[in-house]
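Record pair follows.
FIRST:
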Amino acid sequence: MSKIINSSIARKVSMALSALFLLIFLLQHFTINVTSVFSPDTFNEWSHFMGTNPFVQFLLQPVLIFGVVFHFVMGFILEARNRSARSVKYARFNGAANSTWMSRNMLWSGITILAFLILHFIDFWFPEMNYKYIEFLPEDPTRYHHETVEKFHSPLRTGAYVISFVFLTLHLLHGFQSAFQSIGFNNKYSSFIKKLGNAYAILIPLGFIFIALFHHFNGH
């Protein structure tokens, strides 16, 4: 029994640590992307640095991809084990009385976000890899802003981004606080962490939505 408990705790801690890592990346990603609205030159400069720096490309980028894959795989494993561990059928389980809507639907919000990440890779990462490592095109430090704005010309693609960030908010409203609780911050700081998590979960996705809509309506 102790091995099962310890294994379950280890999985939850691993899930939490990967979530915190992705939260830091998301904040950094937003910081760079929002400059595309206010200063295209700054956006080009920062994007060029991130796209050509060997430390970022060959160390941080693989770690990030591993973190994303690990987080989603671990999430699906935990959800499957939680479902199999229930001794009472879901039809007899009053979920609303014991948990929030967000916590009961983390799997579905996670799947939506995963679909968005696949779209995001198709839109940006794959073309970037093709540009640099397949076609070996000469580096143009000013290309990044134009390429980003061009992606938001389509109302369907822009709508998909907006919907995905709404689901990201729902996912983060539970996930942010849950990650800190899993690593032992369920104490006198819980109230502050909950407020910080709610602010992060709302403001960061809202910021990304603003970026997408701004480029859609102003980039033609």
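SECOND:
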Amino acid sequence: MTKDFSKYQAIIDEFSGTVTADDFESRYSEATSKLSKTDRFLLKMEIKRLAAPCTRLIDLRGHVDGECRPFEHEDRVHYLDDIAIKCFEETFNQYNGYTFGVYEAVMNTENNFRVMYQREKDQLLDSAPSNTVTPKARVLEKTQYPAELFTFGPYYNRKEERMNFAIPLTVELNGNKIVEVTSSDISINGCKFRYKGEESFTIRQMVSLRFTGLEGEFQFGKNDEFNYQVRNVHIVDNVQLVGLERISTTEPRRDGIRQFISGFIQGNKRRYKINLDNTIAALQSRSIEQFILPKSNELPIFIEDNEQGVHPRYVLTCHNNQNVFQYWQDENRQSTLNFLVTPERLLRIKKYASQYKPLLVYSFIHTSNGKSYFYTADTIQLEDDLAFKKQFLGFAANKASFAVHQLYALSLDESRAYSPLTLADTITKRDQHLNQPIAEDVLVSLSNLASIVIAYRVESEAMSVFYQQLDFENINTNKLKNFGHKRLLEPLAIDDVGINYNNQRQEPRFKYKTPVAIAADGVKWHGVSEDFSTSGLKVELEKASVLIRGNVINVTFPQLQKITSSFNLNELPYEVMRVSKDKTVLHLRVYVEQHQHIGRSFFKALIEKNRHKLTPDEYAMFSPGLAKALRNIYSQSLQTIAFLVQSSGSRYKYETIATNDTDNPFLTRCKQLSDRNNYFNLYPVLNHANVTSVLTASLKKMQSDDPSISETLYISINPSSEIVEQAVNTKLESELQSDMIKKMFIKNALKRGEFYCIQLKLSRTDKPDMKYLNPELSYISTYAMHRGKQIEQEIFSVAGVVQLFDVTQEALARYKLQMEEIPA
């Protein structure tokens, strides 16, 4: 049981910071002479505990009634508000260092929500009559869920290092006017300065610069003015930040000022610090990109425009969007995405995109004589005939293959394919391959691409039930046939390219199906191999197993044994490395004790002799670098909102949003609800207690290869209300238990302001591929170690990612069907 030392607080304060003093024991004995021996001992242990050094980081964001900001101390960055900073400094001086006493004092400031709640609860308990039931204490409602926005690319590579350096400069304008400014940073061929005056600077303006602050360090001679051109101008708090580039015709080796600045930076960059702003921003965005893109629940389709017409050419696939890609495959596993994105439909998609709306496509698959026939109809095709629209939706929804996809188009910019590191000219030879320009064959593959179409499958049990209830009796079959797609004699070449950052495979895998028998502890299972490598194997069992990670099992290959007499392929030991959620898929690794593993020798020989016949287990790609190029284009065009779930002690926090669509209407509302500049308030999503509890509970049980977890929210926002709780009303779709209740919620939401239907998709993230992040991370750590450590902690704290899909148009489509009446 924890001892309550509150009544001895005066003694604790008296001896704080004096535990190591020579007279501590004598003074302590005198001050506690009236206490019992046990209390005296426990109190001394408590005083020593509070005086012990502490290394914990303190993050009070969301825990205090105040605005927290970074507070750097002894190479640690805490997030504290003004009250906590004052408390930290006072107790730090009291304890002569950062100890547990300082930590606990900061965690218990008077404006801490936990402390305020406990104080209010105690007051209610004290004031409650002894013969009555204690009223429930009022819980302080949290109305701010602040999150910072990050965008993906472009990441500008600086040609040379910049050093933060403030010195006086004089700038001559138009050959006559001279203004005095102060430099912000300098590089060999560039400079940035601050200017508070009235003179305006314009891009490409020519100026003459004089380094008055360096005249004591460098002998300029007769030519003490140097020509520069204005390359960028930013205004922050009425201060112009002007970036310049040197214009010189002198050979570099004969350019004295250039040689001086180069040596000056190399000799002083640890003293004055390198400007790391663009590298830090790029690294943060790159790391977030690695978590979000491989867990994408939407399917990016790259559209090609060539002599054969306009049609899908490439798709970016990952584990989460495979359901969309595989839906549009026929019985021969040939892609039929050209039925989803037709040339005519692409025009309608772009028309809707200009209205900031997706195009809804309803589809089903009819199977006859083993062949698949696809039927699709979009909202524009169905809008003129309400009676047939209801019949079509009812007929389609009663098919097992019924699906609803929403499509929107993105412009395609080839220049986004190249995403270099931001390390100026300091990149090592080992990492040069990361900055290689786009290969010619990749540029050829990209040259005919015209746009990107994003396909997201809207999935909801309530949605399917609604459409299934629509009457389709006496449906006009002739009209229905018009929405069927004719099968092509020659399928179009539509290739899937993997969104792949972190390839943890140490050796190539090959697809190969062969029967296997598995035995462990007297129990046997039968299955089929999916793929193999020299040291590994993936097996799908006929029935669920009871195996777990770490089990050692014996694997027999009956069919392979028939084709070899040189190897004994019976009861080979393998270790279970991963088990699927349904216990039917096993990932195995050879288990070696004292001698060579026969299975490894066999598969090595099999690969060497049949490499040209085996099918590699990797995504189809025509040229190396194509996946990276398409991924870069997609990431820098990304419109979907996502936020990271990061572990913070025993809880999760949601403080990072990522998207390139900064004008998104829903995101705009979140910004307006925030009480902090440049932050977004996720209150419309996270204020519902069941949302955060579902996210937390699901994430703790999920593995990185599990399918995403889905929740649908109905959100009403009144923009005219300044009180957040009154402006926002959020409900889970499951709470609105009938279509009539949903209709009333939407009607009221539209009456008071705006309605949003948001689908959340939660995924467990993989570990990032640090090979792509380490160059920039190491560069940052060299000149700002504490900043590098902080960024690294943030990277490895990411546990999950939640994508937000705005499916408002589909919800409104159902709402309108309820409101419309078909005339007799």
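COMMENT: The first strand starts at residue 69 and ends at 73.
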